[in-house]
Amino acid sequence: MLAIVIPYYKLIFFEETLKSLALQTDKRFKVYIGNDASPEDPSQLLEKYKSKFDFKYHKFETNLGGTSLVKQWERCMKFTADEEWLMILGDDDVLADNCVAAFYENLEEIQNLKISTIRFSTKVIDSQGAFISNNYIHPKIEKATDFLIRKFKGGTRSSLSEYIFKRKSIETFRFKDFPLAWNSDLLAVLEFSEWKNIFTINEAQVFFRLSGLNITSKNDDMVVKNNATFQFYSYLLEKQSKQLPHELIIILFEKLEKTILDNKKNTIYWMKLFYLYIKFFKINRFLTLGSKIKKSIK
Question: Is this model's pTM higher than 0.90 or not?
Answer without folding.
Answer: yes
